[in-house]
Amino acid sequence: MSTRPVWNAKLFLIERSASDPARCAQWYAALFGDELIDRGEARFELRGPQRRLWFRHGPAKGVPTIVFAFDSTQQLAAFQAHLIARGVLVHPCPDALSDALGISAFSIADPDQRNLVFCVRPLARVGVGGLDSARLQHFVCASTHTDEMLSFYRDVLGFAESDRVVDSAGGLSSAFVRSDHEHHSFAVFRAPAAGADHHAYDVPDWNAIRDWADRCAALEIPIWWGPGRHGVGNNLFFMIEDPEGYKLEFSAELEHMTPDQAPRTWPHGPRALNLWGNAWMRS
Asked: Is 57:17 a contact under the CB 8 Å cutoff?
């Protein structure tokens, strides 16, 4: 049993801001076959078997909110007490999400002012529909101060550091942290400006990577990067872009780690990002 209060919290929901949220939501609904709900006031909810997305009007390619879910109210309460004891300002869940996430959900802000919401995982709904082989797994952001972001997620929130990538001067280029046994549920890359980088869906195996690539081909969505194998995390992957150019990833066989497994260090370079070929270098 891990002594980390955040352990076994899993990424549950991504909120996307978009210049045209209806078009963006419809694109994701077509890709995944998920239930699309019009919430009014240019807000849309997408519900799938193992994923949930919200869309609202705002800056293109934005991810203003990410949500992590615990399995029980006891775990959520223990984590909230952990944060308060460390002086973290805890706020009620945003009104737009409170109906979906329950009265016990709460939010905090990370150093880049991204809204982090923590909740208890709602009971699965019957008859949601959609393809069930792509589970929302991790979110990655860009930042101008990777050290502060790593310190917050690791030392304040209690995520476990899995891997870091450093440049020739020892500066932190990227960091990957986990809130359960999977190699990372959150990561940060150094970049010229802060913002969303991508989010990822876990699929069962290499054959599922092929099947999702074929589905993208049928929808005339080109592969933007991949297929490849990340060095950090050792997972198979490919990436596509949504209508605004925001990236999403399909990933398989992400490395599993124990709560106290020591982090490792990679030199900044293409092999940390793709053992098979070209890399998307953020800096």
From this structure: yes
Pair 216, 100 in one domain: no
- CB half-sphere exposure, 24, CA atoms < 13 A: 29
Q: With respect to residue 247, please indicate whether it lies within any of the assigned structural domains.
A: yes
Rounded Cα gap, residues 157 and 98, in angstroms: 22
pTM of this prediction exceeds 0.85: yes
Domain range spanning residue 29? 10-120
Express each pLDDT in 181-217 by its tens digit. 999 999 999 999 999 999 999 999 999 999 999 999 9
Number of domains in the chain: 2
d(CA 268, CA 81): 37
C-alpha dist (Å) from residue 181 to 9, 178, 211, 279:
10, 7, 26, 26
Statement to judge: residues 158 and 206 lie in one domain? yes
Inter-residue contact 254 to 182 (CB < 8 Å): yes
